[in-house]
């Protein structure tokens, strides 16, 4: 009785029967090329993800810097206001 083959094995046997050796070589080369292309694609996707992450980090840093600057400006304005109020109060008490 013929034994059952895995899907891959039976496909290979059919290919061997259908193609002469030379064509099998080109088939192997084609699958190898396909694998290389898939690897390149994966690498590109990884690079893209890394770039996205870097961009997000950079954006967050910029946002934080902006917030810090705004807080500093606010503090300076508050200090100036206090000084002005003190000067005003001193001026009034002089009268």
UniProtKB/TrEMBL annotation:
<protein>
    <submittedName>
        <fullName>Circadian locomotor output cycles kaput 1a</fullName>
    </submittedName>
</protein>
<keyword id="KW-0175">Coiled coil</keyword>
<feature type="coiled-coil region">
    <location>
        <begin position="27"/>
        <end position="94"/>
    </location>
</feature>
